[in-house]
Design goal:
The protein is α+β, with helices and mostly antiparallel strands and 458 residues long. The chain is built from 13 helices and 15 strands. The strands form two sheets. Strands 7, 8, 9, 10, 11, 12, 13, 14 and 15 form a nine-stranded mixed beta sheet that branches. Strands 1, 2, 3, 4, 5 and 6 form a six-stranded mixed beta sheet that branches.
């Protein structure tokens, strides 16, 4: 059965309404190319109709830049009269938002494969679903998980207008890097309690919390699961983190590099392939995994350069790539080695998988996963050899570099025949139009750095 055609049954909504008589407001949201949730606020009496016949959304909702501007040359605005496209609810996505002051719930929708056209060609979740369908047709069932790093900032900026770490329980601002510090987690206990409670209510499988490599930086891991479900969890988890943080007077920031002088935030993607019975096909006593694992690594390395724009979609994404920063910028792989792009972690044989370490925390999980799995599939089909794993310092052994600037990544995806084949020309037309519009807008702005560098010297 195609994942793209799986939508929620009306009975799910009927049960929810019966169990939650206090809720009158429902956020209907869809995730766009930038990973931004967009949608409408519905009243209780409008909900069942969404399950019965979908909800019309304008085609332009899938062509917006990260700033919410139309991209006129995407083909989804004036060319089609900004036509309404129908989106339907996803199973299990109707949930309460416990941090909201008014009783409110949310439901995630996806464009219908037929009724959702033409906007559906740009729906990130639908792209991932199609790539998963292709793997399953070959008897391969992808399993994934996300590790997302983020900063907790005060809702108020400092005197210079810069973000600043949120106050802890003692009324102090974290100023030092206390990686793996337990006291740092204790100091955000009220936030963590509400976050874990909200995730439990929404059935998001959150696990380990870690104090990361910068003041106010946190990472919380998510449990492995079927790839599409895992990315649904990642998307909804980010909404929960932001919502709970706001309720605590904080701003949860998933920006890739908020500050030049301290660590950026990544999204490490864990991936393996299973058979139809759920048996891990990468499982091996060999720490480098099975031949299938190595073929998948070969495919991911093959698609790495062409896919950088999906892993690192914004101008700021590329500020994260610095030597000895745990942000890899070489197309390399290794066993239990954090200086490479694709790491095979240690652990028991049954858990063998690949950790893809390139993505920034600002990446759209659906698009990043689509690129990763497309690479896996290509490597398995072509039986690609990734070469020997890197040992020691992968930064020092670099013989090739990934694009570490936005324009190079834009051009790499635009020129890629492989990307056109796996993602489709229609998706790429819209996505490239959006990213080029963002690039032009970003480069046209003049700000403090320009004045500091050139005002008196040029």
């Amino acid at each position: 059965m195609s994942f793209a055609n799986t939508f929620a049954d009306e009975q799910e909504a009927l049960n929810f309404l019966e169990q939650n008589p206090d809720i009158d407001l429902f956020e209907l949201f869809i995730v766009d190319a930038a990973g931004v949730p967009r949608g409408k606020l519905l009243h209780r009496e409008e909900l069942l109709a969404v399950y019965r016949s979908g909800r019309p959304l304008p085609s332009a909702i899938m062509n917006l830049t990260i700033n919410g501007d139309d991209t006129e040359d995407s083909g989804l605005v004036w060319d089609v009269g900004d036509i309404d496209c129908r989106a339907y609810p996803l199973p299990g996505s109707l949930v309460r938002l416990p941090w909201r002051k008014m009783p409110t719930a949310a439901v995630q929708v996806q464009m219908h494969p037929v009724e959702g056209l033409p906007a559906g060609v740009a729906d990130p979740r639908q792209l991932l679903a199609r790539i998963i369908d292709g793997l399953q047709a070959d008897g391969l069932y992808p399993v994934m998980a996300c590790e997302l790093e983020f900063y907790l900032f005060d809702a108020k900026r400092d005197a210079k207008g810069r973000p600043q770490p949120a106050l802890d329980l003692d009324g102090d601002r974290p100023r030092t890097t206390q990686v793996y510090g337990l006291r740092e987690l204790e100091q955000i206990e009220p936030f963590l309690k509400d976050l874990y409670d909200a995730c439990r209510e929404q059935k998001i499988p959150v696990r380990t919390a870690i104090s990361e490599y910068a003041p106010g930086q946190v990472e919380i891991t998510l449990e492995h699961g079927p790839a599409l479900e895992a990315m649904d969890h990642a998307v909804r988890y980010k909404r929960i983190v932001k919502g709970v943080a706001a309720a605590h007077g904080m701003n949860a920031c998933f920006m890739a590099k908020p500050f030049a002088e301290i660590a950026g935030s990544g999204m490490h993607m864990h991936v393996s392939l299973a058979d139809k019975d759920g048996v891990n096909l990468f499982a091996s006593e060999d720490k480098a995994g099975t031949p299938l694992l190595r073929e998948a690594v070969g495919g991911m390395l093959h698609g790495l350069l062409d896919s950088m724009l999906l892993f690192c979609p914004n101008a700021n994404s590329y500020r994260r790539f610095q030597a000895n920063s745990y942000a890899p910028f070489t197309p390399t792989w290794g066993v239990d080695n954090r200086t490479v792009s694709l790491r095979v972690p240690g652990g028991p044989a049954y858990s063998r998988h690949v950790e893809h370490r390139v993505c920034g925390a600002d990446a759209n999980p659906y698009l990043a996963a689509a690129a990763i799995l497309a690479g896996c599939h290509h490597g398995v089909r072509e039986k690609l050899d990734p070469g020997a794993p890197v040992e020691g310092n992968g930064y020092a052994q670099a013989t090739a570099l990934l694009p570490t600037d936005w324009l190079s990544a834009l051009n790499a995806l635009d020129r890629s025949d492989w990307a056109k084949d796996v993602f489709g020309a229609k998706f790429l037309k819209v996505f490239m139009a959006i990213k080029r519009a963002e690039y032009r807008q970003f480069m046209s702005e003049v700000g403090e750095q320009d004045w500091r560098w050139y005002l008196n010297q040029a």
